[in-house]
Design brief:
Blueprint: H1 2-7, H2 15-28, E1 40-49, E2 62-71, E3 84-87, H3 104-108, H4 111-119, E4 124-127, E5 142-145, E6 150-152
Length: 153
């Protein structure tokens, strides 16, 4: 979240505030925490601008929030491996872009590829990247699926 906030010109949420907020929310909602195998508590922290006007500039005010929800497996076949469609037309990240951040536009970039994958019988697309680079400017082989964690080739 700190990296995302920095890239999106949002203030950092102090680590202690972040951790304490999650602990307090989980304590308040303790009876919602699932205990069955294959289940978990989905925790989603987020921050958004709260200025009373619109403009193309960073906001002066923000609200930090956390929501949570009991969750089962995201995919219909549970924790089994999923079939991934390798997408070659759409990209989610480009050098200098926001692909490494948690922001809404990155999820929207995967929608068309997700529909195409579903039509072809796949669970999720792997979105090719127009160049992921490490700190030394060297290309990395790193892909992200639209709906899950990343994998390395």
């Amino acid at each position: 979240m700190q990296n995302s906030n920095e890239r999106l010109c949002m203030p950092a949420v102090p680590e202690e505030t972040f951790v304490e907020a999650i602990k307090e929310l989980v304590a308040v909602d303790a009876e919602w925490v699932p205990h069955n195998p294959g289940t978990s508590l989905y925790i989603r922290p987020f921050i958004f601008a709260t200025d009373a006007h619109l403009g193309v500039h960073a906001s002066a005010t923000y609200l930090f929030c956390i929501i949570c929800s009991p969750s089962g497996s995201y995919y219909p076949n549970g924790m089994s491996p999923v079939d991934i469609y390798v997408e070659s037309r759409d990209v989610r990240a480009v050098r200098g872009g926001t692909g490494y951040t948690k922001c809404g536009c990155n999820y929207a970039a995967s929608l068309r590829a997700g529909q195409e994958a579903e039509k072809k019988g796949y669970i999720s697309p792997d979105l090719n990247h127009d160049g992921d680079y490490d700190d030394d400017g060297e290309a990395e082989i790193q892909n992200h699926t639209a709906l899950a964690n990343e994998f390395f080739a």
